[in-house]
Amino acid sequence: MSMTVNGIAEELPDDPRVSLLDFLREHLHLTGSKKGCDQGACGACTVLVDGQRVLSCLALAIQFEGSGVTTIEGLGRPGRLHRLQQAFVDHDGFQCGYCTPGQICSAVGMAGEIGRGVPSYVTSDLEAETIELTEDELRERMSGNLCRCGAYNGIVAAVAETYAEHPLAEAAE
Predict the structure, then answer these.
(1) What is the CB-side half-sphere exposure of residue 18 using CA atoms within 13 A?
(2) Which value, to the nearest 10 degrees, does the dihedral of the CA atoms of residues 27, 32, 36, 39 take?
């Protein structure tokens, strides 16, 4: 049994009780995803599974047999950051950096949701073919990711700049 993590096939752990987060951090040594609350309340552990946001602390690795998992390490390349990673740098969208990997993975997943027409609590027209990425829409969709340092204005600016014109951007870009 295996899953693909950042483009590489990885064997799943023998113990079916291993969380996806612990599998990534302790077995594969991908430490970008953080263990913040271990209860799914902070978003620091957010990764992408087949392009959708997942709180990896609440999920078992075995659940994702055959799936493709993308972590923060799989978004950019050495010397070539993902455009959202670069926007976080440009807009001071991080301070301590602890929540940043989860924020970035969540924003990439959010862009996919908007591209698929998935409404949020604040979406004004539920039947619209396209959803406008307003500041309220963006803040609502990112509300599951907490930043203890309060870098929210920089985070919003980075995400808005990155996805205002290209909401269907792929995680691997």
Answers:
(1) 19
(2) -60
Q: In the chain, which residue ranges form alpha helices assigned H by DSSP?
A: 20-22, 83-90, 100-115, 135-141, 152-163
What sections of 3-134 are H helices per DSSP? 20-22, 83-90, 100-115
The Cα 46–Cα 99 span in angstroms is: 9
- Reported pTM: 0.92
- Per-residue pLDDT of 48-102, as tens digits, reads 999 999 999 999 999 999 999 999 999 988 889 999 999 999 999 989 999 999 9
Can you list the domains of the chain with their CATH numbers? 2-74 (3.10.20.30), 83-163 (1.10.150.120)
> Counting Cβ atoms within 10 Å, is residue 162 exposed (0-12), middle (13-18) or buried (19+)?
buried
* Helix or strand (DSSP H, E) at 69: strand 68-70
Question: Residue 3: in which H helix or E strand, if any?
Answer: strand 2-5
